Please model this.
Amino acid sequence: MKNKYSSFIVPLALLCLVYSGALKAEEQAAPVGAINIKQTTEAGTYTQKGADTCIKCHDEDEAYPVFDIFKTKHGQQGNKQSPFAGLQCEACHGPGVAGAAAMQVVLDRGGHVGKVRPGQERPPILNFGIKSDEPVEQQNGMCLNCHEDTSHIGWKGSVHEDGNIACANCHKIHTARDPVLTKKTQPEVCYQCHKNKRAEFYKPSSHPVRFGQMGCTDCHKTHGSAADDLLIKPTLNQTCYTCHAEKRGPLLWEHAPVSEDCSLCHTSHGSIHPALLSKRTPLLCQQCHSQAGHPSLASTGAGLPGGSPSGFLLSGGCINCHSQVHGSNHPSGVKLMR
Ligand code: HEC
Ligand code: HEC
Ligand code: HEC
Ligand code: HEC
Ligand code: HEC
Ligand code: HEC
Ligand code: HEC
Ligand code: HEC
Ligand code: HEC
Ligand code: HEC
Model:
């Protein structure tokens, strides 16, 4: 094994030797594991040497390199809660020898880790994500054995759970840096399924997600949220105020739609109109304000009061005069002009 990992495989092997003694003792009394691993989804016989057995066949030279897991939090034996302080690979992949009843592992063949005679198929072991044949619920159950209490308060009943999305659809485990946890690489993970969102963030006016300055998780709580659309705050406006605090006020002269719902005028992801507006002025404003009796009637010269067309008006959207569209603190700002 001449690769960059050989230097730590030896200490790992030694550790596992020491460890396997402990594991043997534990084997009798399932559920096993240093922490709150509830073996609710899988019960059975685990290998005696844990990862050492697996890495005899699965290593860095393979089509699927597995060792990068040791660079992640999961690979840290020092943390008593981590898989490698307990059942190791099998904490996620399930028992390697026998037991995975749903998968009908034939006991006397020694399960997935055993010898396989020519012509025979190797009994399968639990896999994750798109390559897996197992129900999503079973896959996620392995992760939730450890994660239910911590990060998954909202997961049960969330749109993603209801949509039958696997943890492994978003999370990569055998990579040093899980792309979904980094702002720069996260959007691509989401675009796999939310394809139209990519187009939205490429529109001329957009939140700077495509430059890696923001991630979806600046506004969304992907595991579940009490708010609509998985927003991080209870309302849409509160979500926007986390960064655009100045729009919250308090203001002397409020503009009613602003305190009600930013999305009455703005799109959240991107727009072909400037400033993420859903429409251009005057159309934007005229959704609610009638043109009657007001200078703004003058989209043509004929409509101007007093007759003389002003270039300012002709070119002007409403916000040329009503510049304080979000509200005003000026004593005479009642018409949102200053
Ligand atoms: C924290 C959970 C977890 C642990 C621990 C874990 N794996 Fe995995 N493994 C996964 C997930 C999830 C996938 C699916 C693909 C991915 O996330 O990269 C996977 C994929 C694999 C695959 C690829 C199967 C394929 O589709 O080709 C192999 C092989 C594998 N793991 C072996 C191991 C070995 C060997 C160990 C121990 C050294 C181990 N795994 C530890 C979660 C885990
Ligand atoms: C004796 C060699 C050997 C050992 C030991 C072994 N595997 Fe495998 N494993 C394989 C082979 C070969 C495949 C590919 C099977 C196929 O493509 O049909 C595989 C496939 C897998 C897969 C993909 C899912 C599947 O069933 O095809 C995972 C995940 C996996 N192994 C994890 C593990 C884990 C975890 C351990 C330790 C508990 C382990 N393996 C021990 C040889 C081994
Ligand atoms: C045996 C328990 C155990 C199992 C099983 C397990 N994890 Fe973890 N996981 C942990 C621990 C411990 C941490 C580190 C927590 C910390 O340090 O904050 C962690 C961290 C993580 C992190 C954060 C990584 C980071 O860099 O911050 C993700 C994402 C994660 N796990 C996903 C999964 C997924 C997906 C599965 C199922 C394929 C899974 N875990 C299975 C124990 C487990
Ligand atoms: C739709 C994509 C998606 C799915 C599905 C998903 N996650 Fe996550 N997960 C994320 C994102 C994005 C983050 C980063 C959260 C952040 O930065 O606010 C994260 C963070 C985490 C973390 C570390 C931070 C924390 O909240 O403690 C763990 C652990 C984790 N996920 C486990 C899981 C498990 C277990 C499942 C399956 C039950 C799962 N995730 C399903 C996207 C997902
Ligand atoms: C600046 C905050 C913000 C960011 C960043 C953001 N979103 Fe949203 N998203 C929202 C708001 C607010 C809504 C609900 C109202 C709406 O649709 O405008 C929403 C709605 C959604 C919806 C459901 C409604 C629909 O349009 O289909 C999806 C899916 C979604 N966002 C995905 C994403 C993805 C994927 C990313 C990252 C690539 C992302 N969002 C980044 C604020 C944001
Ligand atoms: C494997 C596919 C898949 C991936 C990957 C995925 N989603 Fe989803 N997402 C769904 C499905 C399915 C739904 C529910 C149906 C729908 O509204 O499209 C959904 C719904 C949503 C919603 C709308 C919630 C609502 O209340 O309507 C938001 C927001 C969202 N996802 C954000 C994200 C973010 C952010 C990511 C990346 C971290 C992500 N999704 C990754 C499949 C996925
Ligand atoms: C995580 C921080 C954050 C959140 C939350 C957020 N924004 Fe932004 N917003 C930004 C950043 C960063 C910019 C870009 C500023 C720049 O380019 O100078 C921006 C720009 C804008 C712009 C101006 C775009 C332009 O082209 O001038 C509008 C309008 C806007 N956001 C509305 C909203 C709305 C509405 C919400 C709530 C749905 C929201 N923002 C939530 C950070 C945020
Ligand atoms: C009545 C329509 C309307 C509503 C509602 C509205 N905006 Fe705006 N917003 C505008 C218009 C019009 C512009 C463009 C102003 C300009 O070009 O001078 C703008 C520009 C912005 C900008 C970029 C320029 C600046 O002033 O910083 C941000 C950020 C912004 N809005 C955030 C918000 C937030 C956050 C909310 C909700 C609290 C909100 N807007 C509600 C109409 C609205
Ligand atoms: C979603 C509906 C809506 C949109 C869109 C909207 N407004 Fe308003 N606007 C209102 C409401 C409601 C009031 C409060 C009316 C009242 O108090 O009589 C108001 C008040 C005003 C006032 C102050 C009127 C007064 O007598 O004090 C001005 C000026 C104004 N809006 C200008 C605009 C401009 C300019 C735009 C476009 C950028 C716009 N509005 C877009 C609903 C809207
Ligand atoms: C040339 C400057 C100018 C432009 C452009 C303009 N307004 Fe006004 N607007 C005013 C003035 C001045 C008042 C105050 C009139 C008064 O007090 O009688 C006013 C008042 C209003 C009022 C309060 C109700 C009223 O009639 O007094 C609303 C609502 C309003 N404008 C909406 C709009 C909308 C919507 C547009 C764009 C279609 C627009 N304005 C374009 C100057 C302008």
Summary: Residues 186 and 318 are 39 Å apart (CA to CA).
